[in-house]
Design goal:
about 525 residues, about 15% strand, six-stranded mixed β-sheet, alpha+beta
């Protein structure tokens, strides 16, 4: 479905390196030590050394020491490899793990342990930990893993919504950027603009890039994606295609001197966003207002409230895609752009006219159709949100489809029983999956909508059942009952109390062509 994450990864990481910087901008960083010793992809090794020091060498300061940040390399199949880094020794050395697994917190913790082993000269422990991790079969999410006496972690579930403070990327992003600028950045990504994010702190910089991109779920940024830009790739800022790029503040003077056109710039240090577009105003006002209110309500809480607020917005904008699925007997399931756009309000229709041209939306639809027509079906938090929300609309075709599934004796079921066509088997599985995960939650809403809009109920012949919470809902309620911890800038220090967040600054408009959001 457009995800850039590689599936079926064989090893937890590809290579671990320790890279040193000579301290001169004219000299390239060098690999001092690596594991495994026989790793021979010299092109990858040469590339990642430059990504380990993505700033002007003359501006190195001790304030960068100990920082964790992440760069991304894209392979030939457009899958992302993550370079998890930790700067040490006056920002002249960098420890880096290259992996296809987006286990940010796990690898950051391991890098701290490896840096400690290196500083103490404990080479045997260093090698034992890396060897154990490299030969480890990838466990299922939630499985505890013991690598050594000092190293223990639980395999993260990347299918879950990110939570604060457990997810470092989202935590740092939400702490560093106010709600108004988060909304503007979200809108710019939905319109696939050229976006630069700059910051003087590497850990915050890459966290903001990853955190903002994660709010597009269930869609994924499909264009140039560089969480932190090394100096030798600075010309990418002039690329004519959409991009999402993080730039260290020490390089911004060079970037600003380049011929940049129609670029959205978020300065995290000053919490200001500059854009030549009115993207936020172009989104449906009711969706923006609802999202803004939810974000302000969860601004002092922990958990997945921030991610869930964006998920609700995505469901409101794109959740009606199911109404545009064309399901015909003995034919592959297809998607009708005309049906997707035509049945919404004028404000929504204008947005959706643009949305169907977006690569992130096309990849999303192609992924859903591939799963349906291959007979796999799907179930995720986005589909559950659609079922539990008011996003399905009042489309009669969709209501009739749910009604047919509920009765169990309609044309869809009968056709599957009498035909061996793979596409129709997929229809049955798709219908059954959605009936199982959402029919109880949405039956009452559909009934009330039919009565209000059509004068009849599609479920009048059935006794109204009790609503049953889905497993996802039960997990969320369980989290809400737990004792809340304050958001912290520094991950892993939940007991440190933060002062209250100041109210978001007012949006200021300039009469100049650009808009400065403070």
């Amino acid at each position: 479905m457009g995800s850039r994450i590689k599936g079926n990864t064989e090893t937890a990481f590809e290579v671990y390196v320790e890279v040193t910087h000579p301290g001169s901008s004219s000299s390239d960083p060098e690999v001092r030590r690596q594991f495994p010793d026989d790793y021979s992809d010299q092109e990858v090794l040469q590339t990642l050394t430059r990504f380990c020091f993505p700033f002007c060498a003359d501006s190195l300061t001790v304030s960068q020491v100990g920082q964790n940040f992440t760069f991304v390399l894209t392979d030939i199949d457009s899958k992302q490899r993550f370079g998890f880094c930790r700067l040490s020794s006056g920002a002249r050395s960098c420890f880096c793990i290259l992996s296809y697994l987006p286990w940010f917190e796990v690898f950051y913790k391991l890098l701290n342990i490896l840096a400690d082993y290196t500083a103490k000269g404990q080479d045997s422990q260093w090698k034992e930990l890396l060897n154990t991790l490299h030969t480890l079969p990838i466990p299922e999410p939630g499985v505890p893993v013991h690598l050594s006496v000092h190293s223990y972690f639980t395999v993260p579930d990347i299918r879950e919504l990110p939570s604060i403070p457990e997810n470092r990327n989202l935590t740092e992003y939400f702490v560093a950027v106010d709600v108004n600028n988060m909304l503007h950045l979200y809108a710019s990504m939905l319109y696939e603009r050229r976006i630069l994010i700059c910051c003087s702190k590497l850990s915050t910089l890459t966290a903001c890039v990853h955190g903002s991109a994660a709010m597009l779920y269930p869609m994924y940024w499909q264009h140039v994606y560089i969480p932190v830009l090394p100096q030798h790739l600075i010309d990418y800022c002039c690329a004519p295609m959409p991009y999402l790029i993080g730039v260290h503040s020490s390089l911004m003077e060079r970037v600003k001197s380049m011929a940049l056109e129609d670029v959205v710039v978020l300065n995290v240090d000053t919490n200001t966003l500059e854009t030549p577009f009115d993207d936020l105003q172009s989104l449906p006002n009711d969706v923006v207002s609802s999202l803004k209110n939810r974000l302000k309500k969860v601004s002092t809480t922990t958990g997945d409230g921030v991610a869930h607020a964006f998920l609700k917005a995505q469901a409101a904008l794109f959740g009606s895609y199911r109404n545009a699925l064309k399901i015909e007997p003995e034919e592959p399931i297809t998607f009708s752009e005309e049906a997707f756009v035509s049945h919404r309000s004028s404000a929504m229709r204008q947005f959706l006219q643009n949305a169907i041209q977006l690569q992130l939306f096309k990849q999303f639809i192609d992924g859903r159709l591939d799963l349906l027509n291959s007979g796999k079906g799907f179930s995720d938090v986005f589909e559950e949100e659609i079922n539990m929300g008011e996003y399905a609309g009042s489309d009669k075709t969709y209501h009739q489809w749910l009604f047919t599934v509920k009765k169990g004796s309609g044309a869809i079921i009968n056709t599957v029983k009498t035909k061996a066509n793979p596409a129709m088997k997929t229809v049955y599985k798709f219908a059954k999956d959605h009936a199982r995960m959402g029919i109880k939650e949405v039956k009452n809403r559909l009934k009330q909508k039919d009565i209000a809009e059509n004068g009849y109920s599609a479920a009048m012949d059935e006794t109204q059942p009790k609503l049953t919470a889905s497993p996802l809902t039960e997990r969320k309620e369980g989290k809400q009952r737990e004792e809340r911890r304050p958001i912290t800038v520094h991950f892993g220090q939940p007991e440190q109390q933060r002062p209250p967040r100041p109210p978001p600054p007012k949006l200021q408009r300039s009469t100049r062509p650009k808009i400065l959001v403070l």
